[in-house]
């Protein structure tokens, strides 16, 4: 067998998954594509179905299962975090402000990476901090491209409006002035995964005295550039 790992059953399972990459297959189709004996192909496909790596379509044909998508998403998250450090550090150095990366989790957003200001007053959000989705420029970014029903629910009790989010979608970045915390301003932009879905928000935040009441004028381009670098890292093939 070509590309043999020395572990026969895994090699055969990989053949089954590779065969399904091109689309749904009947058992006979799997046998033809893999060269496996019919009982072996059936046994492996059913075992992979048990682990949700294979599923069935409406016609009963074998297809790739949901577990593979979940694993791919987790790999994308790891790649996002691996790329975040240098991008956030550069963003902090360019803007002179603390930089953060947020991901949505249910009705909250979590700071998954950050680069703090090196001196002076630090307006930090520690990694692991959980913040609401009802206020702040990062919350606006994570909400703006949601499905209409989820967007409508998320706007209930929010400090921003549907009109504001429409502006965010048009500009490609968001700003907030004292929205989440008095005296603090921020600017954020979307990080997009390979399917173009918004998977995270990159931000800078600091006191209004430094960022002014129009923080986007000062920092929007740097934020958008940082978000584009992270998006590109997620699109690069392994």
From TrEMBL:
<dbReference type="InterPro" id="IPR036390">
    <property type="entry name" value="WH_DNA-bd_sf"/>
</dbReference>
<dbReference type="Pfam" id="PF09339">
    <property type="entry name" value="HTH_IclR"/>
</dbReference>
<keyword id="KW-0238">DNA-binding</keyword>
<feature type="domain" description="IclR-ED">
    <location>
        <begin position="67"/>
        <end position="236"/>
    </location>
</feature>
<dbReference type="InterPro" id="IPR029016">
    <property type="entry name" value="GAF-like_dom_sf"/>
</dbReference>
<keyword id="KW-0804">Transcription</keyword>
<dbReference type="InterPro" id="IPR050707">
    <property type="entry name" value="HTH_MetabolicPath_Reg"/>
</dbReference>
<dbReference type="InterPro" id="IPR005471">
    <property type="entry name" value="Tscrpt_reg_IclR_N"/>
</dbReference>
<keyword id="KW-0805">Transcription regulation</keyword>
<dbReference type="Pfam" id="PF01614">
    <property type="entry name" value="IclR_C"/>
</dbReference>
<dbReference type="InterPro" id="IPR036388">
    <property type="entry name" value="WH-like_DNA-bd_sf"/>
</dbReference>
<protein>
    <submittedName>
        <fullName>IclR family transcriptional regulator NdgR</fullName>
    </submittedName>
</protein>
<feature type="domain" description="HTH iclR-type">
    <location>
        <begin position="7"/>
        <end position="66"/>
    </location>
</feature>
<dbReference type="InterPro" id="IPR014757">
    <property type="entry name" value="Tscrpt_reg_IclR_C"/>
</dbReference>
């Amino acid at each position: 067998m070509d590309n043999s790992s020395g572990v026969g059953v895994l090699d055969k399972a990989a053949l089954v998954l590779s065969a399904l990459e091109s689309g749904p297959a009947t058992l006979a189709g799997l046998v033809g594509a893999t060269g496996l004996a019919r009982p072996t192909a059936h046994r492996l496909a059913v075992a992979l179905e048990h682990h949700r790596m294979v599923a069935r379509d409406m016609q009963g044909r074998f297809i790739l299962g949901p577990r593979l998508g979940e694993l791919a998403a987790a790999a994308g998250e790891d790649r996002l975090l691996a790329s975040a450090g240098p991008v956030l550090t550069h963003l902090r150095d360019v803007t002179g402000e603390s930089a953060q990366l947020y991901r949505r989790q249910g009705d909250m957003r979590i700071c998954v990476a950050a680069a703090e200001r090196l001196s002076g007053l630090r307006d930090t959000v520690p990694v692991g901090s959980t913040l609401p989705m009802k206020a702040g420029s990062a919350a606006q970014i994570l909400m703006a491209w949601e499905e209409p029903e989820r967007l409508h629910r998320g706007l209930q009790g929010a400090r921003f409006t549907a009109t504001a989010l429409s502006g965010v979608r048009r500009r490609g970045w968001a700003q907030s002035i004292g929205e989440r915390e008095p005296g603090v301003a921020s600017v954020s932009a979307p990080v997009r995964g390979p399917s173009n879905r918004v998977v995270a928000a990159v931000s800078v935040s600091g006191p209004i005295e430094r960022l002014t009441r129009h923080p986007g004028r000062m920092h929007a381009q740097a934020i958008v550039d940082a978000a584009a670098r992270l998006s590109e890292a997620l699109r690069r093939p392994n």
